[in-house]
Amino acid sequence: MNSDGVYDFYLHEKDCDIGEIKRKILDAVSDDHKDDFERFYPSPADLNYLPRNSVLIRLQFTLKKPYTSRGEDAFSTNPIVRDKFTCLPIVRPSTWKGNLRFAATKLKGPKNPIIIRLFGSNPDSEDTVKGRLYFFPTFFKDRAGNDVITPLKRETRTPARGPIPLEVMKPGTKGDFYLLYVPYPGKENFRDEIKEDLKLIAEALKLMFYTYGFSAKRTSGFGVVEKQLKGNLWMRGGVSKNFSDLHKLSEILDGYRYEQH
């Protein structure tokens, strides 16, 4: 334990509510930096510096079910993950990647070449392949709330143990999701690969956001979003499209016009 940890633990033993004090400080800091997170996101203009057929997708979503994650605050019970710079609750890029990959493998299977092409090779794979998808953090401007869940036994649907308090982002909370697709040069069927990639991306996004969710408690329906959202899609060369749900996004990507090399 570092010196700060020892100090916090000492105050905690003295019945000082150091967890609540820290939370108030973090909330104050997050108010000071609540607009700084925009610098973490790519812009449509950045596409001009990337390979042909690169695509940027932004989804401005609203939570239908609570979202939670596993933070590291020793003085909070089941805390949500926060960004160290802004102190805002976040969804990490690795969380997005893991959940979208999970949804995509439900559609294609874990060993399908398109999964490796989009998400890269597995950590235990001998061949290192970089995926074509790039993920970015989601910052929630709203403050986290509290919720309680009671785990149930699968057989009897009776409580397996007592209620568990969680720090969550409540339903109605809004967030921005950014996804960048950069197709590295492929083989002779490069054009067909891009069409396959974009089709699977659209289907996997629907499955992740509308069915499975993207939360640490996704098996309980946590992290599912409202059907209606505000979406933008930008293609290299200045082409842009707007959409109001992920079914519309599928239609847009189905009609994608391939940029010749």
TrEMBL record:
InterPro entries: RAMP_III_fam. GO terms for biological process: defense response to virus. Residues 72-226 form the CRISPR type III-associated protein domain. Keywords: Antiviral defense. It holds the Pfam family RAMPs. This is CRISPR-associated protein Cmr2. It comes from Methanothermobacter defluvii. The lineage of its organism: Archaea, Methanobacteriati, Methanobacteriota, Methanomada group, Methanobacteria.
